[in-house]
Amino acid sequence: MSTDEFDQIFPLGEPNDAYAQYFTGQSYNAPLTGGSVPVANITFEPGCRNNWHIHHGTEGGGEQVLLCTAGSGWYQAEGEEPVSMEPGTSVRVPAGTKHWHGAKADSWFSHLAFITPGANVSNEWLEPVTDEVYSTLPTTNGDDA
């Protein structure tokens, strides 16, 4: 399936070249709103995922919210089981949580992403999710780990 055939309600956006070094595979970024709580639609090609990372912040900042809008993907916090994300799935990622998210091996995946404002908000990009770890996840839509 090409990007033209992936049906979603928000724009695909441009190739996410600014953050390509932190992704395995191709992702796309469509900024939807600016301001104090910017929201972006991030789209992942099949098998694409971001590296492990941590959102930092104080005074309420640094919490991330992911809202799946199309396709099928994964979210995983360190030390926890992966969560299957389908349209309508939402995930709250507390500040300071090491995690990753991305598409299932056989599906495109889009989510809206935003981070709560506060003080000292930053991202810490870490190691990639290895092919060995990723390949242990179910590939069929609807199968949970």
From TrEMBL:
Q: What is the lineage of its organism?
A: Bacteria, Bacillati, Actinomycetota, Actinomycetes, Mycobacteriales
Which is an annotated Pfam family here?
A: Cupin_2
Which CDD domains does the record match to this protein? Answer: cupin_HNL-like
Known Gene3D superfamilies for this protein?
Jelly Rolls
Q: Which residues form the Cupin type-2 domain?
A: 42-105
- What UniProt keywords apply to this chain's record, in alphabetical order? Dioxygenase, Oxidoreductase
Record InterPro entries? Cupin_2, HNL-like_cupin, RmlC-like_jellyroll, RmlC_Cupin_sf
Q: Protein name, please?
A: Quercetin dioxygenase-like cupin family protein
One GO MF term: dioxygenase activity
Q: Glycosyltransferase: is it a keyword of this entry? A: no
